[in-house]
Amino acid sequence: MTDIINLLPDSVANQIAAGEVVQRPASAVKELLENAIDAGADEIKLIVKDAGKTLLQIIDNGCGMSETDARMSFERHATSKIHKADDLFHIQTMGFRGEALASIAAIAQVELKTKLHDRDIGSKIIVEGSKVIEQSEIITPSGTSFTIKNLFFNTPARRNFLKAPIVEMRHINEEFIRVALIHPNISFVFFEDDRKKIILTKGSLKQRIIALFGKNYNSKLLSVEENTTVVDIKGFVGKPETARKTRGEQYFFVNHRFIKHPYLNHAVLSAFNELIFDGSFPSYFLHLKVDPANIDVNIHPTKTEVNFKDEKAIYSIIRAAVKMALGKYSLTPQIDFDVEQSLNLNPPPAGTEIRPPQIHYNPDYNPFEQNDDRKKTVDNNGFHDVKLSSRQISNSLNWQELYKNDASNFEIVDDKKDDSEVFDEANFSLHLKNSVFSSLNNRWLVSVIHEGLAIIDRQAAHERVLFDRFSALSEMSKGSSQRKIFPERLQLSATDAELLIDLLPELNALGFEFNALINNEFDVYGTPPDLSNEILLPIIEGMLDYYKLNQMELKIDKRRNVLLSMAKKLSVRQGQELVQEEINALINALFESALPAKSPSGKDIIAIISPSEVAAKFRN
Ligand code: ADP
Ligand code: MG
């Protein structure tokens, strides 16, 4: 048999390598941003068109390249960052494998323009699918510009594999944030489809966090700092009360490189322990500086995992440093644990005359008298041996009603009817609607109706009411907006901003009018009528949190998700006190709904405890 093994041509080898290095436009953005940083740039411009499918451009004012280096930079394993194996243990740069440019050039049309600072003339090179098409001298500013056109033009399967523009754009944003966040000493300008999207001026880490994630971070951050022989930690954690329902801003960096590390993430969470509710996530931005010799450098270029030599020690140091930051801020948890314990019956309406309770006693009563006269005597003193009607029980819970309708005290009870379990659906809602409900633990509403003890989950009920109202508003389309005299400015995180832009049509239908500005800021010109007096930022952020959760958990369309998330965010929280008028209004509105028994997210709103269930409680 003849020999059959041959070396692959470079272009094929590069294309194969590209499959690993450049999975999507965002990977190219990451590599090119990192190259600009390694080149010592302090001004970087990123231009993205069509979510990176048609154009990505990165312009830096870094060191630039000579004519020969410019040509060499596209070769595989061509790097200026390491020379010998030992250098692997002292890596201070973001890149070192010399693979990125070769990979990108294998699957795109790349134009490089570069000039060293002390030269008058620079170089231009055009490479398409690993083939050099043109190399010439040009006049160009000092530094480097890479233009990547038609990514995956020669690998149609991969191009078709790209996700919707919003998804690809989200990945690009995230890569941009990961790089920009930890380099606050570099200024960035980010254009998306000819729109200036983000402008970041040089400043401190705190200023960078605020610029990227919103001004409200200004009062949310606690500084973390700890210097040890194993690791230096510097950064911020969010105050416990700012923890959010979805994993929001959680960033670890090691030597200026973004990493994901579940074990170290746990160190931060355990420091927060008890300070935040289960199921909420604190935000953190922590930069670890570790001797490069103590990390495993042989990491895959696109992976974000890192192995530390002293993982356990680093865990303890992070945990202690975060605890200290939290401890300095507040020694005791800020959560009011008492709210849940109190049985909260509503206070009487203002102006009600409070009468002392009347005590009936029998002056002739002798406890040592063992005869049946006792019962008689009691009866004579006004204790009737009459079964209380459901109405009367209801009134004993809702004592206000006693003043409104004295006649009900004398309601005669039909014994048979009262104990029967026959369920009359038509009357059921009516009974509920006409009952007066009291608050239990600021969480449930309770009333006694004909069918038994009715319990309403307050939050689920409110969700139903709001969902119906927002559905109606969004069907009216547009007519429902309340214009603001002065627009309110909101700054969101990049992810939230991206999502908000995607949801603009649905939010407009509800009555919101947003105008997108740069740096994830928005001006709000109009809101649904119910929200005209509210502070919008927490509402929008909370709504987007629920939207993201619903996206993960429920299969529902955008419109329904927006309505549902808005209803969830605005619904009355556990522990929040409602006055009787509010309770009555909620009950009335609930029974206006066509679906009063189920919340829009499928939770039961009403539970009935039947008289026989109550009886079972007393059966010993
Ligand atoms: P690596 O970054 O791993 O060295 P790359 O393929 O990303 O590999 O880049 C190859 C080489 O090209 C780099 O080592 C660097 O010398 C040069 N280079 C790439 N981008 C730039 C840039 N923006 N400015 C200056 N030199 C660059
Ligand atoms: Mg590189």
Describe this structure in words.
- By secondary structure, the protein is an alpha+beta fold.
- It has 3 domains: 10-200, Heat Shock Protein 90; 206-328, Ribosomal Protein S5, domain 2, CATH 3.30.230.10; 422-620, formyl-coa transferase, domain 3.
- It has an 8-stranded mixed sheet. A 5-stranded mixed sheet has the order 9-10-13-11-12, sandwiched between helices. Strands 14-15-16-20 form a 4-stranded antiparallel sheet.
- Strand 11 and strand 12 form a beta hairpin.
- Helix 2 packs parallel to helix 6, helix 6 runs antiparallel to helix 16 (494-502) and helix 15 (458-476) packs across helix 17 (504-510).
- The protein is elongated and about 90 Å long.
- The N and C termini lie far apart (92 Å).
- It binds adenosine-5'-diphosphate (ADP) and magnesium ion.
- Magnesium ion is lined by residues 31, 34-35, 95, 100.
pLDDT < 50 runs, ≥5 residues: 331-348, 369-423
Biggest sheet character:
8 strands, mixed
Helical fraction: 25-40%
| CATH topology label of the largest domain | formyl-coa transferase, domain 3
Q: What is the topology, as strand order, of the major beta sheet?
A: 5-4-3-6-2-1-7-8
The CATH architecture category of the largest domain equals 2-Layer Sandwich
Helical stretch count? Answer: 21
Bound molecules: adenosine-5'-diphosphate, magnesium ion
pLDDT averaged residue by residue: 82
Assembly type of the chains comes to: single chain
Range of strand content: 15-25%
**CATH homologous superfamily of the largest domain, by name?**
MutL, C-terminal domain, dimerisation subdomain
Number of structural domains: 3
N-to-C span? 92 Å
How many strands appear in the DSSP assignment? 20
Structural class assignment: alpha+beta
CATH first level of the largest domain: which class? Alpha Beta
